[in-house]
Amino acid sequence: MKKIFLNTLLVLSILVGAACKKDPGAVPVTPPPVVPPVGPGAKIDYLKLALETHTFTTNNLLTAGYGYRANTTTHANNCYEWYNVSQIYADAAMVGIGQSKHLAYMNNTFRFMENMWDKKDLRGGYFASVNLDGSNAGGDKYVDDNALSGMVYLEAYEVTTGTDKQAYLAKAKACADWLISSGLWDNVYGGGFYWNTQKPEKPTQTNGLALQLFVKLYSLTGESIYRDWANQVNDWLHAKMYDAVSGLYIWKIDGPGEGKKHTDKFTYDNAIMVEALILYSKTMNDPAYLVQAQNLGKAMNITLWNSVWKGYIFNTNETRINPAWCAWGSQAMIRLYEADKDESWLVYAKENINRLNLANRNPATYGYYFFAGFDGQNRAPEIETVDQAWMQRIQALLSKY
């Protein structure tokens, strides 16, 4: 998932310069207060914002075949796997709060996703990209993208019935079975899944999403293979990727021999792990893992939270904010609230989204820019489908609270 970020980092760094880097000696600018995007003092209507985001997406990014173009600029002729499933995720959240019209969007895009499935390999797996008409599926296969697809389908499974429900479960299992059979887990660095079929590195988010999928499938099916893989991935993440000093998970391991640990801390890596630990606690009936999730959430709110601007940073070396990767922090806080009913988690969830609405949202078009500073300056020009999807999703979830 960091592939878009990594490919554009050089260009964006030229645009934003040193102002986006942490400078411990600098005097912070006094920011404007976080106020509702619909006007000072007004109650925030998160459902309205989610619906407006969906309108922007369908007007600007949806194709005739119910795929979604990657963005409106540099990749307007491509559909990306994790962008499309993120929009399914967003629509599933809408269905979950009673917006039934989103069922058709969700199910039609699910059918479009079949264009990305590798039908020449008996193991299957999703390729990363297709053309707008669904042709020319190709690129590497990504463990994190396939794992996220499985988790998205399991949420769609929860809000559908009949043959659609069974189709979502079957494809979620197919995604997990591809992970197991892909050959992308080995003993290098003591275990762990590689990011993709090129085997460049083993990141936290890749393994965290795989853990989520295995745990969730075990809870639904009772099949021991998913339990065993969940335990294996969980053990590796704790042994290799957890940093006890910060209480957070690091970015990745790569390189020869024992490998190099990259100790950058990303908001969405740790958000993924919060959700994984909550799922593990519930499924394995082990309250100690809920405590771990709570402690991880607290660590996020110490290290990854900008208390001046009231929002999650992208990572500890990059303080610009992105609507997908930073909004993931709000999902973690929502999941913690649902698990323990501590309303302080919701404060973080809401303030983070409020900041993204101020910094990244175009109030005239309702679209969200790829990156921006906390103050809304230095906006990247790209309008990415995945960013719209995550803002739609999180605001739909927040509308319940």
Automatic annotation (TrEMBL):
<dbReference type="InterPro" id="IPR008928">
    <property type="entry name" value="6-hairpin_glycosidase_sf"/>
</dbReference>
<dbReference type="InterPro" id="IPR053169">
    <property type="entry name" value="MUG_Protein"/>
</dbReference>
<keyword id="KW-0732">Signal</keyword>
<protein>
    <recommendedName>
        <fullName>Beta-galactosidase</fullName>
    </recommendedName>
</protein>
<dbReference type="Pfam" id="PF03663">
    <property type="entry name" value="Glyco_hydro_76"/>
</dbReference>
<dbReference type="GO" id="GO:0005975">
    <property type="term" value="P:carbohydrate metabolic process"/>
</dbReference>
<feature type="signal peptide">
    <location>
        <begin position="1"/>
        <end position="18"/>
    </location>
</feature>
<dbReference type="InterPro" id="IPR005198">
    <property type="entry name" value="Glyco_hydro_76"/>
</dbReference>
